[in-house]
Write a structure and sequence with these properties.
Elements (H helix, E strand, L loop, with lengths): L4 H32 L25 E6 L3 H7 L5 E5 L2 E6 L4 E6 L5 H14 L1
Parallel strand pairs: 1-4
Antiparallel strand pairs: 2-3, 3-4
Length: 125
């Protein structure tokens, strides 16, 4: 029992050192990750005002979804459009006469991106 006594006295001291080291490592890792953290521009969690009631009639408009690698710039090249909106990795264009709207994204997109571009369709007419 006497041989164990010094070890028992050292356990709280050693535990304190280990705890401080773990905390320091955690703080350093958080600082490194936090320095590189940026908001993803494709995730849009802002509130918006819903379009007017007459714009909630999707059966009167045809909405297409086109997947292209050049989605952000594709809408600029479409000639038969009355308007368009562009975002990072996506765009949307519409034709009032044909009552048609086309959402264009890359093959890897987000629900937020699709929703944002679809809202442009609702607001286009």
């Amino acid at each position: 029992m006497q041989a164990c006594w010094p070890l028992v006295c050292c356990v709280p001291f050693l535990f304190g050192i280990v705890t401080r080291c773990i905390c320091c490592v955690g703080v350093l890792m958080t600082a490194m990750w936090g320095a590189n953290a940026q908001a993803d521009p494709l995730l849009d969690f802002r509130f918006f005002t819903a379009p007017q009631d007459q714009r909630h009639a999707p059966s009167t408009w045809l909405v297409n979804w086109l997947v292209r690698p050049d989605a952000q710039t594709y809408c600029h090249s479409v000639t038969h459009k009355d308007g368009f909106a562009s975002r990072m990795e996506g765009c949307v264009y519409w034709s009032l006469g044909q009552r048609q709207c086309t959402v264009v994204t890359t093959d890897s997109t987000t629900h937020s991106q699709l929703g944002h571009l679809y809202l442009h369709c609702l607001n286009a007419h």
